[in-house]
From TrEMBL:
This is ATP synthase epsilon chain, mitochondrial. It holds the Pfam family ATP-synt_Eps. GO terms for cellular component: mitochondrial inner membrane; proton-transporting ATP synthase complex. Gene3D superfamilies: ATP synthase, F1 complex, epsilon subunit superfamily, mitochondrial. It comes from Myriangium duriaei CBS 260.36. Signal peptide: none annotated. CDD domains: F1-ATPase_epsilon. Belongs to the eukaryotic ATPase epsilon family. One of its GO terms (molecular function) is proton-transporting ATP synthase activity, rotational mechanism. GO terms for biological process: proton motive force-driven mitochondrial ATP synthesis.
Length: 75
């Protein structure tokens, strides 16, 4: 039996991100706000191609774009 995240065609890291977001959103208001603050990250990355660094992107923004693209493709 395959893992559900593999069957859905997503990476394990994306699965963890989505799972954490779902749990945070299900909390009551006061606890949800504190949990959402903990879930924020300030990481940036750049994709390298042909020995040159590409544009720096925020990890959260890139994750949201990838999730939107994935949802759009699966529809």
């Amino acid at each position: 039996m395959a893992f559900a995240w593999k069957a859905a065609g997503i990476t394990y890291n994306r699965f963890l991100t989505v799972s954490a977001r779902v749990v945070r959103r299900s909390l009551k208001e006061d606890k949800r706000i504190a949990a959402e603050r903990r879930g924020e990250s300030d990481l940036k990355f750049a994709k390298w191609e042909n020995g040159r660094q590409g544009e720096n992107k925020a990890l959260n923004t890139a994750n949201e774009e990838a999730a939107a693209n994935s949802a759009h493709q699966s529809s």
